[in-house]
Specification:
- The complex is a heterotrimer of chains A (205), B (379) and C (86).
- Chain A has one domain: Thiolase/Chalcone synthase (Peroxisomal Thiolase, Chain A, domain 1, 3-Layer(aba) Sandwich).
- In chain A, 33% of the residues lie in helices and 25% in strands.
- Chain A has seven helices and ten strands.
- In chain A, the strands form two sheets. In chain A, strands 1, 2, 3, 4, 7, 8, 9 and 10 form an eight-stranded mixed beta sheet that branches. In chain A, strands 5-6 form a two-stranded antiparallel ribbon.
- Chain B folds into two domains: 2-218, 3-Layer(aba) Sandwich (Peroxisomal Thiolase, Chain A, domain 1); 228-377, Thiolase/Chalcone synthase (Peroxisomal Thiolase, Chain A, domain 1, 3-Layer(aba) Sandwich).
- The two termini of chain B are 14 Å apart.
- Chain B has 379 residues and is α/β, with parallel strands linked by helices.
- In chain B, the strands form three sheets. In chain B, strands 5-4-6-8-1-9-15-14-10-11 form a ten-stranded mixed beta sheet, with helices on both faces.
- Chain C has one domain (2-18, 34-83): Non-ribosomal Peptide Synthetase Peptidyl Carrier Protein, Chain A (Orthogonal Bundle), CATH 1.10.1200.
- Chain C has helices at residues 2-16, 42-56, 63-69, 73-83.
- Classes of the chains: A alpha+beta (205), B alpha/beta (379), C mainly alpha (86).
- Chains in contact: A-B, A-C, B-C.
- The interface between A and B is large, with 51 and 55 residues.
């Protein structure tokens, strides 16, 4: 297994394959500026909650690494899995949803409720990049490279998957901490997929 | 292949796999109407755990029950029962815990409780407390993958066991209802005011439910006769919409066709569908079953009896499927009378006998996720 | 008055549905809201039902009836003008 690309988005930094990416600031928010920098046109981005926006952008930066994947007549690939981990699940958006059900002003918002699950991020990534394989969201107290490594290695060992998009996607209380890594079966890429390399992708900012 | 050596269901119908299964065979259900159980929410038809009974059981059977939230109490009681049945040591370093839940202690968001620290709202904290209660030294795995969490958790357990690092994995799942969850589903207009009617022409939506469930898995080179093993699992995304299922049943079809490669449609005793009784889900599953060549296999849903128990659904519905296999029965599908889906399905109106040894459990969830599990009865 | 309602409705829809790259001038009164036109989806439809109640005091519970009301901005505004309680 080899790492073919990795991206990092925090509240103040963006990196691609370990190199800082300069984001031009406007009067919009941080994630909207990253969206602007990437130059994509995807109106659904603005419906997403903060966790999905941040994770979506990190995935957007690394997905060119799987551009050569096999696709069926509908343009779907069945060979790519998405395994993401985070600490706070969808708590950031859960709090926003809870504001729409206060007793005095009770108007539950379906557009917010739909994002009160952490795996919606894997769904948004799957829709955007037409990924019809396995998608799983795990919760952990912190980023543990060994845990992420094992889950990904297990996936490669037990299924015919060719690529796995994995990483850490945490967004809570204004704290943004995203790592997206594309891992490919075989021996071509930036570096071998190991616990140590995965840890370095996370730590080196 | 991993083998189930103990299990427990704790739900609106009762406590204990055998008791719950017998109740289902008698035609009982846990779904009932609640007019003002959730403030500001509209009246709801749901399958709720009796909280008084829960607290009483916790007082009688748990150490320091007041240290735990209702959900944690339910998980602890469920795991404890399964552990006793299986006769294993949950503190052994070769044993790991996996938790499946969608919202955990989310009621603490609206109703903070001074007994519980702020971190209690985190799903990893719930898993740590339950594993810690049983003295387990390993970091638990937590899956929060919408309504397919129970399947993802079992697939995670299979991979952990086949890796060889662990000998036993305790897979637990649980979700309780709250104003947070009920209000959200009502905003989706997804709920039926009556006990739901899977696949039926008059279906109006789903019922929500509460449950905790546990399955203890082990790799057994020589599984005991009448034990049930998880043969294979599959998980495929529709890549279509974050809350609506694919109109062509793409993900479900892919899951089913992956499982069918291991065997033949003729060998399958029944399919336990997700069958939430929403207009779109049931139609999608009917299409997926037909595309996979499973249209002649009996199919039923348990949502009329259990309600949709979210993170627990994949666990407790798998347990009932396993129990049905052991008993050589195909369960009926109460709430179903006339087909309301575009593809004809074999939906039993009464219990049937079967001597087939395989069954499939299907699940679907928000985020475009779909899963299916293939279970085998060992002779 | 009808003009004000139409303009306000467009602004509310843009805000509530997070139509970031769209301004009121971009939304034609008669353009279909679903399918083509604005291309709104099922969650947007549910959110519009909430908007009707929160801003105009109109309770919609029948999804089939709602389809006709949400056909276009014009049909929405007409329905609101006739049925608003706020």
């Amino acid at each position: 297994m080899y790492i073919t690309a990795y991206s990092r988005i925090t509240s103040s930094h963006v990196l691609l394959n370990g190199q800082p990416v300069q984001i031009e600031r406007t009067d919009k928010d941080w994630l909207a500026d990253i969206y602007g920098h990437l130059g994509i046109r995807y109106p659904k981005f603005f419906k997403m909650d903060m966790l999905c926006k941040a994770g979506f952008l990190a995935a957007e930066m690394v997905m060119p690494a799987i551009a050569d994947v096999k696709r069926d007549e509908a343009g779907l690939t069945h060979d790519t899995a998405v395994l993401l981990f985070n600490r706070s699940a969808s708590l950031e958006n859960d709090t926003a949803y809870a504001h729409t059900i206060t007793p005095a002003d009770y108007f539950p918002s379906p557009a917010l409720f739909v994002y009160t699950l952490p795996n919606i991020l894997t769904g948004e990534i799957a829709i955007r990049h037409r990924l019809a394989g396995e998608t799983v969201c795990y919760i952990d107290e912190a980023f543990h490279a060994d845990t992420v490594y094992q889950a990904v290695a297990d996936c490669f060992r037990t299924t015919p998957v060719v690529n796995v998009l994995c990483g850490w996607a945490e967004y809570y209380a204004g704290h943004c901490d995203i790592l997206a890594v594309t891992v490919r079966r075989g021996r071509e890429g930036l570096m071998p997929f190991t616990e140590k390399n995965l840890q370095n992708c996370y730590t080196n900012i | 292949m991993i083998t189930a050596i103990g299990d427990n269901i704790f739900c609106s119908i009762g406590f204990g796999t055998k008791q719950v299964f017998m109740a289902i065979c008698k035609g009982l259900r846990g779904t009932a109407g609640y007019a003002d159980r959730f403030p500001q929410c509209e009246p709801v038809c749901a399958a709720l755990i009796d909280r008084d009974r829960l607290h009483q059981m916790a007082t009688e059977q748990l150490q320091e029950p007041d240290r735990y939230t209702d959900l944690e109490q339910a998980l602890l009681l469920s795991v404890q029962d399964a552990v006793q049945q299986a006769g294993i040591d949950p503190a052994h370093p070769d044993t790991a815990f996996v938790l499946s839940t969608t919202k955990g202690n989310i009621d603490l968001l609206e109703y903070p409780d001074p007994r519980f620290e702020p971190e209690r709202i985190h799903l990893w904290r719930t898993a740590q407390l339950v594993a810690g209660y049983f003295g387990n030294p390993n970091r638990p795995v937590v899956v929060s993958n919408a309504c397919i969490s129970g399947a993802s958790a079992q697939m995670a357990a299979q991979r952990m066991l086949e890796r060889g690092r662990y000998k036993t994995v305790i897979v637990m799942g649980g979700d309780l209802l709250s104003r947070f969850i009920v209000s959200g589903f009502q905003s989706f207009k997804a709920l039926s005011p009556r006990p739901c009617r899977p696949f039926d022409a008059t279906r109006q939506g789903l019922n929500l439910g509460e449950a905790a469930g546990t399955i203890i898995y082990r790799t057994e080179p020589h599984p005991a006769p009448r034990s049930v093993s998880l043969w294979a699992g599959s998980n495929c995304n529709d890549a279509n919409h974050i809350s609506g299922p694919s109109r062509t049943g793409e993900g479900s079809f892919q899951c089913l066709s992956r499982l069918i490669r291991h065997t033949a449609a003729d060998d399958i005793a029944f399919v336990n569908a997700h069958g939430t009784a929403t207009a779109y889900n049931d139609e999608m599953e009917a299409i997926a079953l037909h595309r996979a060549g499973l249209q002649d296999v009996p199919v039923f849903s348990l949502k009329h009896q259990f309600g949709h128990t979210l993170g627990a659904a994949g666990i407790i519905e798998s347990i009932v499927s396993m129990q049905a296999l052991r008993n050589g029965t195909v369960l009926p599908c109460p709430g179903y009378e006339n087909s309301g889906v575009s593809k004809a399905l074999q939906i039993p109106r009464q219990m049937l006998h079967t001597s087939k040894k395989l069954c499939i459990k299907m699940l679907s969830g928000f985020g475009g996720s779909n899963a299916a599990l293939l279970f085998r009865l060992n002779s | 008055m009808e003009e004000d309602l139409m303009l306000n409705l467009k602004k509310q829809i843009i805000e509530v549905l997070n139509l970031e790259e769209i301004s009121p001038e971009d939304i034609a009164d008669d353009a279909p809201l679903f399918g083509e036109g604005l291309g709104l989806d099922s969650i947007d439809a549910l959110e519009l039902i909430v908007l009707m109640e929160r801003n105009y005091g109109i309770k919609l519970s029948d999804p089939v009836q709602s389809k006709a009301i949400f056909q276009s901005l014009k049909t929405m505004a007409d329905y609101i003008a006739a049925n608003r309680t706020k």
